[in-house]
Amino acid sequence: MTTAAGLQTVVTVPARFRGPEGTANGGWIAGTVSEALNGARHGSAVEVTLHAPTPLETPLDLRQLANTATLTRGDELLVEAIDVAEPLDAPAFVPFGDAAHAERGFPGLAGHAFPGCFVCGLRAPGDGLRIFPGPVEGTDLVAAGWRVPMTVTDEDGVVPDAVIWAALDCATGWAHFAPGEFALLGRLTARVHRRVYPGGTYSVVARATGREGRKLFGESAIYEVDGTLVAAAKATWIAPA
Length: 241
Description:
Shape: globular
Strand order of the largest sheet: 1-2-4-5-6-3-9-12-11-10-8-7
Organism: Planomonospora sphaerica
Distance between the termini: 41 Å
Protein name: Thioesterase
CATH class of the largest domain: Alpha Beta
Number of strands: 12
InterPro entries: HotDog_dom_sf
């Protein structure tokens, strides 16, 4: 619907797209709100701040203004997205074979705080994305080979930006985490350059870029098999007190 405050719709996050149990995966919900702001325009960056966990299977209000999109539950602000004009540095390309090899060192295999996560959880093939970033030998990078399920397309057969943002999300955390460690996504800024195709193979690469108190910083990227950059992101995570 269109209101005096802009475009308003009601959205509900299916339980499939969870991160921590009972709440939405941070990257997926960030990408969903980004799509409301950015529409089909690729090439510009969007900064999404997660103010509170987004509940599953609950009607939520998504409002779009000229330069802002917000997700709320009643009067509570959950997510806010804004257009930003800033470059995003992408971690170096890792060939798909090397990225897939790095998965053997994925810390989550030894201890995972959120094993049901849509992105990095130990879900059945085709249900979750099963992106398992592990260290790339001789570098400061983590990487995984992403085999895109056929089950993540929209009604037009397109992999939506929400799924691309989700793929960019968790790797930036695993660039920091040891087995069993976790943090919650606080902010994700991403730019999508190209489409992702169902059934395709891609490299997901990330690196830690610093820490400040409880805040963890990282960068990530998705690459096609020939090294073409698909998308890039930077993230801020908040570790538990």
